[in-house]
Write a structure and sequence with these properties.
The protein is of the alpha/beta class and about 250 residues long. It has 11 helices and 8 strands. The structure holds phosphoenolpyruvate.
């Protein structure tokens, strides 16, 4: 049985005071003993204060991006060790905005995933097709390529979470139907079985992301291969994020 994970990607939102209000609002409603993992990925300037805000709670902290090198002349970048120093346990790698707005390639993402895992953190590796890919019938081919160019047996499955985020559903209010999402998640799990093995693939958590809201979270997470959610917009509102966390518990 895979424990569900609800992850919030704050993107480039929240100032310090707002972030404190959000975390307090989530903690107020969070059942510490509930069988669900919770991850928050604030922007980098908030990592240190948020680590303090979530200390001794079940909320884990993640970064939204990282540089693949350990140190050096990389102006504006942050290394895995620096993230670890803030109290992070997870890092998003390959979010569609990193791929499509910042031009990150599979080659680069393969280095980032390895840096994260070798540095002792967990990579949340994001994959997903564009609308153009889907309409051209290329969804599974794109997914396979995104898996094959980055994941291999040298990436410890114990430090890996996969997030399926169809690009056309991110921030658009359009969600994949539970059946559409399940079909791709089952495909991803089968592909992960060929990278690792069937038993390992069964244990790997595959999150769905793309306009997850309190109203659609239960039906998405009720699907057998959907093990939680990567939430953008709705994670910025404490009531919505906690409602999605509750949905993960009722969906099982
Ligand atoms: C995301 O940023 O990963 C995301 C899924 O955003 P949203 O929930 O707003 O679509």
């Amino acid at each position: 049985m895979r424990k569900p994970l609800i992850a919030g990607n704050w993107k480039m939102h929240k100032m310090l005071a707002e972030a404190r209000t959000l975390v307090t609002g989530v903690l107020d409603k969070l059942d510490e003993s509930a069988d669900v993992d919770v991850l928050m990925c604030p922007p980098v300037q908030l990592l240190f204060p948020m680590a303090k805000a979530v200390a001794n709670t079940k909320i884990m902290l993640g970064a939204q991006n990282v540089h693949e090198e350990a140190s050096g002349a990389y102006t504006g970048e942050v290394s895995v060790a620096m993230l670890k120093d803030t109290g992070c346990s997870h890092v998003l790698v390959g979010h569609s905005e990193r791929r499509h707005v910042f031009g990150e390639t599979g080659d680069r993402l393969a280095k980032k995933v390895r840096a994260v895992v070798q540095g002792g953190l967990t990579a949340v590796y994001c994959i997903g097709e564009t609308l153009e890919d889907r309409e051209a019938g290329r969804t599974t081919a794109v997914i396979d390529q995104q898996i094959d160019e980055v994941l291999a047996s040298d990436v410890s499955a114990d430090q890996l979470i996969v997030a399926y985020e169809p690009v056309w559903a991110i921030g658009t209010g359009k969600t994949a139907s539970p059946e559409q999402a399940q079909e791709v998640h089952a495909h991803i799990r089968a592909r992960l079985a060929s990278v690792y093995d069937a038993a390992t693939a069964e244990k790997l958590r595959i999150l769905y992301g793309g306009s997850v809201k309190p109203g659609n979270a239960t039906s998405l997470m009720a699907q057998p291969d959907i093990d939680g959610a990567l939430v953008g917009g709705a994670c910025l509102v404490a009531e919505d994020f906690t409602a999605i966390i509750s949905a993960a518990l009722t969906a099982v």
